[in-house]
Design a protein that fits this description.
- This protein has two domains: about 130 residues, no CATH class; about 240 residues, Alpha-Beta Complex (Lambda Exonuclease, Chain A), CATH 3.90.320.10.
- The protein is of the alpha+beta class and about 400 residues long.
- The relative contact order is 0.12.
- It has a five-stranded antiparallel sheet. Strands 9-11-12-13-14 form a five-stranded mixed sheet.
- The protein is built from 14 helices and 14 strands.
């Protein structure tokens, strides 16, 4: 199998390492990648059909067994119906070589692959020179026309890059956290919260979550062994494939219906974006909703079986430890004193049954949890990002 691709992206003609999102781009994962089906691929290659392209390598590289480990850091941006995806891929026939820079543009309105380029293969330079408009030879990307959201200034990648510019010697995490606190004004945090109400459908939401410990990872972070190469660290910095569980898929499908059922019992629940706090700048929290009076948050879960249901709510009716940590962090960062933990029964589609557990904010537990999560970030994520950026 090909070796894992290193995490690179392309900015102008310069390579940037993992974490350095391009202006206007957000981290790509299974939730926000554009739809591409077989028919779109066939149409694209039919339009580019050329005798020189009919060779075995292309057929092998297009196979379903071409491993996901060959794909490096991927990011995307959407504008005017076009989704532009940038990534790194290790060619199967050159596993020891540098990963190739790959760019794909997809028209999501007409469901058409508009363009796909490998910037490092032997034919790439000739292709670009041949197809570049007059007077633009050598220009690969033009990001100047895209104006990023002001909230992207609080992305960990941007904050850390700016911080490291003036650093001499070993970077100090305490100094970085202080730097973040100075940059994270209440006004900017509020702007981000309002600008990310669509959550996973919002590029800004992905940008500011990148390399932050979010509430869903709070329990694991607080109980981490501190292994810098762990899957948890890799998932935080975006270097691990998102595991899309059956419960997550069911949650996306049913969340709106479950919230409607919860509304019938609790009253209006409004959507909300991600919350950030200057006190803990490397944390983030995205509850599923806020009650109309603004006093409580709502978090929805949709387990698929009765056995899994007990992983969320125990037999005594209390929230299980892992999800209690999530809810407490949500309340802590969102500055709310009460939460409704809403778990749809496995037969929700038929019965509309939802178990709603009221959880009160525990300041002692939450403060200890936040300190443990920050310690995890300092000992692992910070060191890994500094190592990457320093190279």
């Amino acid at each position: 199998m090909a070796t894992p691709a290193q995490n690179y992206a392309l900015q102008g003609k310069q390579l940037v390492k993992v974490g350095q999102l391009l202006p206007g781009f957000s981290k790509a994962d299974d939730r926000n990648l554009p739809k591409v089906d077989l028919y779109m691929i066939v149409d694209f290659f039919q339009e580019l059909r050329h005798p020189a392209m009919k060779h075995v390598k292309m057929q092998r590289s297009a196979g379903v067994d071409y491993g996901t480990d060959t794909v490096g850091y991927v990011q995307l941006r959407r504008a005017d119906g076009i989704c532009e995806v940038v990534g790194r891929i290790t060619p199967e026939h050159k596993v020891s070589s540098k990963p190739y820079r790959v760019v794909v543009k997809i028209d999501e309105t007409s469901e058409k692959v508009v363009d796909a380029k490998c910037m490092d293969c032997a034919a790439a330079e000739g292709y670009l020179l041949e197809n570049a408009p007059e007077g633009t030879t050598g220009l690969i990307f033009d990001h100047l026309a895209f104006k990023p959201h002001k909230g992207e200034e609080l992305g960990i990648d941007r904050l850390l890059q700016d911080f490291l510019k003036d650093q001499i010697g070993e970077p100090d995490c305490d100094q970085f956290l202080l730097y973040c606190k100075q940059k994270m004004t209440d006004e900017l945090c509020d702007l981000i919260n309002k600008g990310t109400v669509l959550q996973a459908k919002s590029p800004l939401w992905h940008a500011v979550r990148f390399s932050r410990v979010t509430a869903s990872k709070a329990y694991d972070a607080a109980h981490s062994s501190g292994n810098i190469n762990s899957s948890l660290v890799m998932s935080v910095i975006g270097a691990a494939r998102l595991k899309d569980t059956d419960a997550m898929k069911r949650g996306r499908k049913l969340e709106h219906s479950v919230l409607n059922e919860v509304r019938s019992q609790l009253g209006k629940i409004n959507p909300t974006g991600i919350f950030l706090t200057p006190r803990y700048p490397v944390m983030g929290a995205s509850p599923d909703g806020i009650t109309e009076d603004g006093q409580s948050i709502a978090e929805v879960k949709c387990p698929t079986t009765q056995k899994n249901f007990r992983k969320y709510v125990k037999n005594d009716g209390c929230v299980a430890a892992k999800h209690l940590a999530q809810v407490q962090m949500l309340m802590h960062i969102a500055n709310r004193k009460q939460a409704y933990f809403c778990v749809a029964h496995p037969d929700f589609e038929l019965t509309k049954n939802v178990k709603i557990v009221k959880v009160m904010y525990d300041p002692v537990y939450s403060e200890d949890l936040m300190l443990k999560c920050q310690n995890f970030w300092e000992k692992t994520v910070f060191l890994e990002l500094c190592r990457v950026y320093s190279n």
